[in-house]
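PROTEIN DESIGN WORKSHEET
SECTION A - STRUCTURE
LENGTH: 312
TOKENS:
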């Protein structure tokens, strides 16, 4: 199977009460870990590259790595998505170079500007058979070089979603309901709670329309502990409870974004390897342990959070 868009995947996910995992890719081992897990569990998957990932790895490498995964796992529907596209030009570049889905993130701009830029991207992408995600509302945390303080984060206003989707023509919408980017989503002692009431209201206003959740890592404490037991210093890293994400996936949420958890898994594997084998210096040895953790984490997400096992 060639790369696919998310259109059919989201339709099935919406009616089936599950979500598709959107995992960030930055190098070959991350692509391998994610796609091997998806193949073993017969789950569709979205591989997404941020502006930072495209700069780090070079977008040509990322596209070719994903094409290799498609060739090796022809049975798995794979979407190649631009994560947090900052402007029309970046989205256009991805549309022109093999991506099947792009996100235009103008959520930090005023409503009318967000509409104008998202609409421009949707028109261009649709002419080329590519689908578009946009964002309304502001997540706290770090969005590609932009840091948003928790008190400046804004939940999505359900009163705006119909007009936004109608006037932009986008295919899916990322909303802010209490998730945030990075490993430090909540303060110690806080009781993390997603605003599932806002999600319900948004989906009432947009029946059948796919909703996206960013910032959905759960920061598994087992990996934080491994990192800290092997020389790391991650203090009070806290994520989104998995049961609340599962609840969201049963409803209108069709795409759940996870990056931080993969970073933690990769780092835990490498740190532990170095500690246990101080004589090793072959990158294949230690990166393989990071890759194994990435695969295990994606398997866990597919089974326990997304519910997408066997949905090929
Ligand atoms: O939403 C942000 C993603 O985790 C990507 O992070 O911009 O550091 O690649 P990045
Ligand atoms: P996390 O930092 O919670 O993994 O979120 C990733 C994300 O939203 C990528 O767009
Ligand atoms: Zn994000």
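SECTION B - SEQUENCE
RESIDUE ASSIGNMENT:
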């Amino acid at each position: 199977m060639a790369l696919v868009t998310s259109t059919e995947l989201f339709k099935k996910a919406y009616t089936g009460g599950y979500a598709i995992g959107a995992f960030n890719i930055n190098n070959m081992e991350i692509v391998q870990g994610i796609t091997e897990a998806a193949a073993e569990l017969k789950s569709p998957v979205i591989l997404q590259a941020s502006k930072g990932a495209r700069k780090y790895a070079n977008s040509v490498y990322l596209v070719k790595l994903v094409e290799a995964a498609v060739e090796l796992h022809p049975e798995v529907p794979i979407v190649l998505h631009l994560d947090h596209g900052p402007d029309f030009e970046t989205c256009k570049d991805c549309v022109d170079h093999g991506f099947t889905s792009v996100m235009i993130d103008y959520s930090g701009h005023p409503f009318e500007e967000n509409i104008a830029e998202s609409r421009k991207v949707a028109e261009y992408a649709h002419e080329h058979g590519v689908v578009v995600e946009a964002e309304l509302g502001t997540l706290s945390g770090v969005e590609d070089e932009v840091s948003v303080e928790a008190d400046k984060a804004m939940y999505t206003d359900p009163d705006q979603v119909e007009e936004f989707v109608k006037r932009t023509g986008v295919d899916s919408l990322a909303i802010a309901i209490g998730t945030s980017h990075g490993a430090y989503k909540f303060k110690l002692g806080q009781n993390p709670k997603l605003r599932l009431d806002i999600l319900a209201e948004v989906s009432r206003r947009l029946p059948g329309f796919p909703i996206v959740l960013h910032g959905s890592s759960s920061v598994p404490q087992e990996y934080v502990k491994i990192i800290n037991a092997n020389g790391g210093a991650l203090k009070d890293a806290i994520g989104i409870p998995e049961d609340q994400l599962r609840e969201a996936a049963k409803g209108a949420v069709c795409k759940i974004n996870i990056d931080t958890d993969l970073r933690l898994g990769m780092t835990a594997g490498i740190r532990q390897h170095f500690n246990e084998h101080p004589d090793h210096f072959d990158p294949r040895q230690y990166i393989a342990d990071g890759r194994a953790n990435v695969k295990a984490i994606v398997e866990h997400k597919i089974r326990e959070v997304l519910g997408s096992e066997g949905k090929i």
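SECTION C - NOTES
DSSP finds twelve helices and ten strands in the chain.
Residues 142-146 have pLDDT under 50 and may be disordered.
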